């Protein structure tokens, strides 16, 4: 086998050279483009290289029993080197094909179209359940045209719309003329019950001129009563401290002119059955129109779920998520409401009373979960 390499400025010219030199029986083994830099890289010139072979059995049979050698530009090289290079190229191609094939068969690429990968990653980072995230991508994709899918804003908007449908919310507290509403906030210790009551009461009292009453059943800590009393004084609303069920009945009767009664309860440990039973008893006496379970999003998902299960002996009909300003993982909200189907009433986003509270709105919350900054 005789092997030679040819360089020319074009493929046609290189092939002519091969033909002229090795004749029409020559076999082309390899072609490649060369980019030759001229001195000082002033000009880039492209050229073509052909490696061609001629079976010497055809033209000039070898009879001296030498090893199978080839000749390139006058040099003699071992033919095996070419096969080694060929083998390396084949291995590289095989590995590329394998990567593509594995991507095509990877369930992720089947469930999450490539254009959604950024959003998908963000959702997982924000702790949205993998199953829910994939479901969202799928339903968003079904509603988009191919050209819409090329637009990142459109993708985000579409996922936000789909997510909003999974986020049940309820209208804010409202009062018809002459109506009275009793609203209780319950939940684990330190979730933000008292602060949230202060925010709500301040808004309805100061902005809407509603007559507000505070009742606190949190008599376990002196500081707890003082905390609520401070807010009551600022708002100019009365506060009743109740120690027994009888106290609750009397307080409600005494203040039958109040339009909005906010009942603050002591933080209860979801692990303490006696505390939960006592709370359920209190709710039986007050029969609130609304019972909001207050959960801090800074608490880990499993603890939030545990609290929801334990507080379910109380007829909770609203969820308030607090401390959204302190979390990077708001996706847990979506996971929770996807399981418990209780609507969200309010979100709180800071310690300031009364500013840092907002009425839960599905699309706005979806944007928060998607990582769109709060003030957008
Ligand atoms: N960053 C932040 N802090 C909040 C928010 N809501 C409440 N807090 C803070 O959380 C802490 C506990 O709030 P509280 O309102 O006393 O909570 P609680 O549920 O009444 O607590 P207990 O009565 O002890 O069960 C306080 O320091 C509040 O200022 C919020 O939305 N964001
Ligand atoms: Mg409190």
UniProtKB/TrEMBL annotation:
Entries under CDD domains matching the protein: FlhF
Biological classification of the source: Bacteria, Bacillati, Actinomycetota, Candidatus Aquicultoria, Candidatus Aquicultorales
Record-level GO BP terms: bacterial-type flagellum organization; protein transport; SRP-dependent cotranslational protein targeting to membrane
GO function terms (MF aspect): GTP binding; GTPase activity; signal recognition particle binding
UniProt similarity note: Belongs to the GTP-binding SRP family.
Protein location: Cell membrane
Protein name (Swiss-Prot/TrEMBL): Flagellar biosynthesis protein FlhF
Domain AAA+ ATPase: 179-321
PANTHER family tied to this protein: FLAGELLAR BIOSYNTHESIS PROTEIN FLHF, SIGNAL RECOGNITION PARTICLE RECEPTOR SUBUNIT ALPHA
Function: Necessary for flagellar biosynthesis. May be involved in translocation of the flagellum.
Occurrences of domain SRP54-type proteins GTP-binding (ranges): 180-371
Protein source organism: Candidatus Aquicultor primus
One Gene Ontology term, aspect cellular component: plasma membrane
Membrane topology qualifier: Peripheral membrane protein
Alphabetic keyword roster: Bacterial flagellum biogenesis, Bacterial flagellum protein export, Cell membrane, Cell projection, Cilium, Flagellum, GTP-binding, Membrane, Nucleotide-binding, Protein transport, Transport
Recorded superkingdom: Bacteria
